[in-house]
Amino acid sequence: MSKAKYDPDEENQTPSEGSEEKLITSPSHEELLQQLGAAEEKANQYWDRILRMQAESENIARRAERDLANAHKFALDKFAAELLPIIDSLELCASSVPSDMQEAAKPVIEGVELTLKMFYSALEKFGIKQVNPVSQPFNPEYEQAISTQEDASVPPNTVVSVLQKGYTLNGRLIRPALVVVSK
Q1: Of the residues 39, 44, 102, 116, which has the maximum number of CB atoms within 10 A of its CB?
Q2: In the chain, pLDDT over 70 holds for what percent of residues?
Q3: Predicted TM-score of the model (pTM)
Q4: How many CA atoms are closer than 13 Å to the CA of 25, on its beta-carbon side?
Q5: 144-163-173 Cα angle (round to 5)
Q6: 180 neighbors 156 (Cβ within 8 angstroms)
């Protein structure tokens, strides 16, 4: 084994072209400004993205809240639609008793009318209202014209008779009223 000897002259020599000594240089002022600008632009992009995500989450929360409120408000929609034919049958029962049987059927008619009043009050309690537009101008939003009839005693486009009452639930139409309109 041979040992290398210390040569004091080697310390004073300049590095040769192939030496691997690295010089640390600091970036220039312009380069630092460019890096700062790029970092600020990236930070602004991230900030914009955060604001958009926050607005989106607030919109989702508002939409969910509105949908839940509508679900509560209109939960009775299908149930009420199922009850309406029953109410129609009771109204028909009360109004279609022949005149020669009026006296004999009076207790039954009174019972049916009381049942109808109870139905009406229960419907009102839950925000269900009747659309019964007799002698009012025709409104296609809440009424469906079945036929027209000439009637000089009322202005044109006025509801002459209601064949079937309509109903709304909290202002939203469940079933349109079936009407006859004057021409």
Answers
A1: 116
A2: 86
A3: 0.62
A4: 7
A5: 45
A6: no
Domain 74-182: which CATH number of 3.30.420.40, 1.10.1060.10, 2.30.22.10, 2.60.40.10: 2.30.22.10
**Residue 16: pLDDT over 80:** no
Q: Is 104 helix (H, G, I), strand (E, B) or coil?
A: coil
The domain locations on the chain are 29-73, 74-182
Buried b (16+ CB within 10 A) or exposed e, 94-113: beebeeeeeeeeeeeeeebe
136 DSSP assignment: S
Q: Which two tokens stand for residue 143?
A: 């009424």
As a whole number, the mean pLDDT across the chain is: 86
Q: Residue holding tokens 């009420």?
A: 80
For 13-38, give one letter per residue: b (16+ CB within 10 A) or e. Answer: eeeeeeeeeeeeeeeeeeeeeeeeee
Determine contact, residues 84/167, Cβ cutoff 8 Å: yes
Beta strands in the chain (DSSP E): 128-131, 143-149, 159-164, 166-169, 172-175, 177-182
Q: How far apart are CA 84 and CA 175, in angstroms?
A: 9
Closest CA to 159 of 176, 177, 179, 174: 179
Polymer length in residues for the chain: 183
| Tokens 């989702």 belong to residue | 60
